[in-house]
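Page 47, continued from p. 46.
Same chain as before, 153 aa.
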Amino acid sequence: MRETREQLETMVETRLAELFPGVELVDLEVRGHPAATVTLFIDRAGGVDLDLCAAVSEALGELRERYALEVSSPGLDRRLRKPEHFAAQIGRVVAAQTTDPVDGRRNFRGVLAAADGQSVTLTLEDGQDVTLPLAGLAKAHVVYTHEPPRRRT
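Result:
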């Protein structure tokens, strides 16, 4: 029997905390069935390099026995899942998709103006703000631009 995404996430976070203090599991993706691939997106202060990815993969041998395992940095278009992920990206352009329509739509793109433990607020291109509940987000990620983050005045 395969573990749930939440079980895998808990197992990986526990192992990372034991062996790699300061390394954060940013996201975990499971694709394919029955021969599933598990992709871990990790981060740490100063960034992620190939040596860290290889060390994490090696340390998770029991996971590699059950899944095809990939370990990667979150990249420039990093995914946002946890309240602290959003809070760290205030002023950046974010794309978000909701599970249910908000004001008749599910896809949003704008500058992340505010974030707390319950919701995020985006300032859309037309200048309007939309507040989206975290629990209602299917996915969200930073949209890489060459411009520095914008701060609300």
